[in-house]
Amino acid sequence: MKKEKNTSRKEKALKTKQNIYLCAEQLFKEHGFYKVSVDAIVEKAGVSKGAFYVHFASKNALIVNLAADYVKHLDLDYKHFFASFSAGAGTSEIIISLAEKIADLIVHDVGYELIKVLYEVQITRTLNADAVMGYQRELYKLFGRMLNRGIEREEFRADLDVETTAKHFIMASRGLIYEWCIRYPDFDLKEASEKHYALLLTGIKK
After folding, report:
1. In whole angstroms, what is the distance from residue 61 CA to residue 67 CA?
2. In this structure, are residues 119 and 202 in contact, taking their beta carbons and an 8 Å threshold?
3. What are phi and psi of 89, to 5 degrees?
């Protein structure tokens, strides 16, 4: 009986957390992250503020969880995108196309406000954002696989340090996204990404 009660409590807590999460996501989409308060979230979810803080340390913590979910979906999308190219496609072409794809997803799916919050969290180190910004993401591993592909096909220099070069590609994307944030909305992230990656690739081509 005690085990059944514990299971029921866990299920109820999980449902409460999911309800808060979904209500917050809807409010963020309708009004923007900065205009939505914890009070507004709990009112929509029909729970107490105490219940919110049982599951999330802060509104930013909830946003990081939300971003981690986006990352899982985006990384899966990147894998499918990579698989869509033919065996004969040039590796440089794929990398530039991927950079443009990243830009499209950031601008249209993730959005300016969420990216701002993620950079704030990462810079202030107030929350653990490794799921979003860490080097173990599937997207980052894709860069490494593509670099190895380019070396094997003799498109890229054989002396490349793949891990280091992949990290530089990642840093390039982060820098471009940061530039987009500080110049928003007067910065074309997709166009800038295409040009920047084309320049980077000239340094590693054979």
Report:
1. 10
2. no
3. -65, 140
Out of 63-72, 120-129, 137-146, pick the least confident.
Answer: 120-129
Alpha carbons 54 and 163: distance in angstroms, whole number = 40
Helices assigned H by DSSP within the chain: 2-31, 38-45, 49-55, 59-83, 91-105, 112-124, 130-133, 138-152, 162-183, 189-202
Spatial distance between the Cα atoms of 166 and 194, rounded to a whole number of angstroms: 17
Question: pLDDT digit string (tens) for 54-96?
Answer: 999 888 888 888 877 877 777 878 888 888 999 999 999 999 9
> What is this structure's pTM?
0.78
Find the angle CA(181)-CA(33)-CA(127) to the nearest 5 degrees.
80
